[in-house]
Sequence to fold (433 residues):
Amino acid sequence: MSLSSTRPHFPAHRRPCGWQALLSPAADRPALHGDQTADVVIVGAGYTGVAVAQTYHALAPQSRIVMLDAETAGEGSPGRNSGFMLEIALAGDASTGELERMSALNALSRRAMASLKSQVDANGIDCQLQRTGTYRAARGAEGRASLSRYREFLAAAGLEFQALDRRGLASALGTDYYAEGLYSPDCYLVQPAALIRGLVSTLPQGVELYERSPVVGLSRDGDAWRVVTPEGTVRARRVVLANNAFSRSLGADRSRLTAIYTYAALTPPLTPEISAAVGGAPWGLLPTHRLGCTLRTTADSRLMIRAQYSYERERNNDEVAADLAASLVARYPSLDGIGFDKVWGGTTGLTHNGAPLWGEIEDGLFVSAGCNGGGIVKGTALGDALARQMLGHPLADIPALFGKPSWMPPEPIRRLGFEAIRRVEQRKGRDEA
Ligand SMILES: Cc1cc2nc3c(=O)[nH]c(=O)nc-3n(C[C@H](O)[C@H](O)[C@H](O)COP(=O)(O)OP(=O)(O)OC[C@H]3O[C@@H](n4cnc5c(N)ncnc54)[C@H](O)[C@@H]3O)c2cc1C
Fold:
């Protein structure tokens, strides 16, 4: 049986990754050539794949683990995000009715976060990791209602936070755009391209990573799997699909997972005066509505903005840049005309109810995908848990904790549904855009 399909096998980004462009060039890694065998093949060297590899190696050090990535470390999806590493469950998931489950999720997040932090420290990974905490702020009624639910959740869970009014936010962030907000300390900021580069370059010996090696076919080969890239194959009894939404082209359940593109831009470095006016110390702000903007400062005094979504395909980046600039200037009128140094898009794997696609889907074929935009920490937690499960040392009942991803209708109904939801949400969340 072959599990290949005509769906895109891997992301093809329109523009280079802005974070990667700020770093010195990375060392070249080889692509896969020829026919090989391994105990495990991991498809995708993102946060999920790296965590699977590390834990699998720690528990089964004799295993030959081969990782295959379509892109290069830092340039691909894992380097394209906004760099928020949340120690606790996302605001959208927060519910006072499910405190016990949320607390267990928070414990898992904190564990994954601590593991990432200790790897950064132990290996001296220079990725500007800093526990800045995070702001959440709202301007309109919809955002304020969501903020209020989140505040209730934090209070009920006994988690630390500080409520802020317009003045408090303005003095911290240099904008009076938002009506109210809160600050919570449970978040780190990182330079994501530097982080993923550091993580893959410190993978243990025994884990072999091949880059520019997209998996374009997967089929049964007796009691094993045959993994096919353009210039090579690997035969292995076990295969892990850690390539997020693109796992669908290799057999992951396409009725439960979809690819959403979102976009980010970096201003040029701000002058010391402007930098001081936008808050000086490093900070990050997450939206209270799903169509809102993420904002943060960077170590070299830039502002980064992330917003906009598109379904399954990347939008024209010039149009995206204009939308991002409008959102930035609405918050910081003095930045009118500053322009962006970098604009780029990236993909996330989305499930309808936020639960990940996780576990064994066929004999020897595993998947962990669908981090719904919070994958640095969540992907690390789920990848670690998957490797433990594969080797008979389960960490937790992941489907019970995270839930199971809900079914989505096939195309073209799914696309129409997505567009309809987006139109409604755009209206509701227009103040936060
Ligand atoms: C603009 C933007 C901002 C975001 N902000 C945040 C944030 O602040 N915090 C956060 O936690 N998350 C954020 N996210 C989401 C986050 O990037 C993802 O959740 C996270 O990267 C998922 O990790 P992963 O390892 O599961 O998958 P990915 O990071 O997508 O990694 C999958 C890997 O698989 C590779 N791949 C794909 N197909 C194939 C194939 N066929 N063969 C071989 N390799 C393949 C890809 O090249 C990639 O390296 C953001 C995403 C975007 C786009």
In short: The pocket of flavin-adenine dinucleotide is lined by residues 9-10, 43-49, 68-71, 76-78, 80-84, 214-215, 242-244, 246, 262, 264, 306, 346-348, 371, 373-377, 379 (CB under 6 Å). Residues 99-122 form the longest helix (24 residues). The two ends are 46 Å apart (CA to CA).
